[in-house]
Amino acid sequence: MALRAVAVAGALLLLVVVGSSAAGAGSGSCQTRCGDVDIPYPFGIGPNCSRGVGFEIECNTRNGSGDLVPTLAATSLSIQVQNLSVESPPMAKVMLPVAYKCYDDPTKTQDFNGEVELNKTGVYRISDELNMLVVLGCNTMVYTKNGNSEGGLYSYLYYTGCIAYCNDSRSAQDGKCAGAGCCHVDIPGGLTDNTLVFDSWNRTKQVDFSPCDYAFLVAKEEYVFQRSDLNKDLNRTMPVWLDWAIRDDDSACPPLALGKKPPAGSYACVSDNSECVNSTNGPGYFCSFKLIFYIRVNFTKLHVF
Length: 305
Known about the structure:
Elements: E1 11-21, E2 33-34, E3 37-38, E4 57-61, E5 68-72, E6 79-85, E7 91-97, E8 99-104, E9 107-112, E10 116-117, E11 124-126, E12 131-136, E13 140-148, E14 156-164, E15 182-186, E16 193-194, E17 196-200, E18 212-219, E19 237-244, E20 274-278, E21 285-298
Antiparallel strand pairs: 1-21, 2-3, 4-5, 5-6, 6-7, 7-19, 8-9, 8-18, 10-16, 11-19, 12-15, 12-18, 13-14, 13-17, 20-21
């Protein structure tokens, strides 16, 4: 009996659906990169290149260096952007300032509460899942307050903070942030700005080894306490993750009947392949985009006879 292989040409079409965030439709003449940061739509640089004011990015040279640096255009301070993602969940990584309060045996000499208003146009919320509040110092309490309670028991909707203390100059230890020289705490969702309030006690005996108190929001994976941080330089920044969403008029995904197209107007998810997803940090939504493509697979079928 002879054994023979016969090649049969064929093709198999596979439909593959991949979930990602919707790419936008900015003008072909729009700048899509600033320095080493990609600027995807709905973000944009210059007129008519972004979805709106809240998504505008400025691209300027850093002082004296000539390097191009992207910054958020609609915030109260110039906030450097490190990363913009339109993948799900949509995120922006920025550098926010460190707040401080310094003393001179023990009279206060200078302070800065780190205030940055991120929500002028409603786009951003500080990610409660990816960031934490860190307080450095001796005999100090720092807390953040945010959101108008609109007649509630307290003036603000959110308060959170912690206390850092020192028995002496040896209290703080590298890598430990549990109260001695350093404390940290999770933050609530819905935070729209970076404002920190200091409440300190007598500092006469600590000024020599801890002349300043510091407080900052920071990405959880990007900070490990060091004793030397009790003498940090002023005017520093820390990396922070922001959640962003389309929040036009506190909008959310509209209820759609099966097979119906989304409503016309300002609604963003207009592609047949886009899906609306509600934000989990404040009102608003983003568009999850389904990329559809085909893979052609050639195969050989063996006949044995």
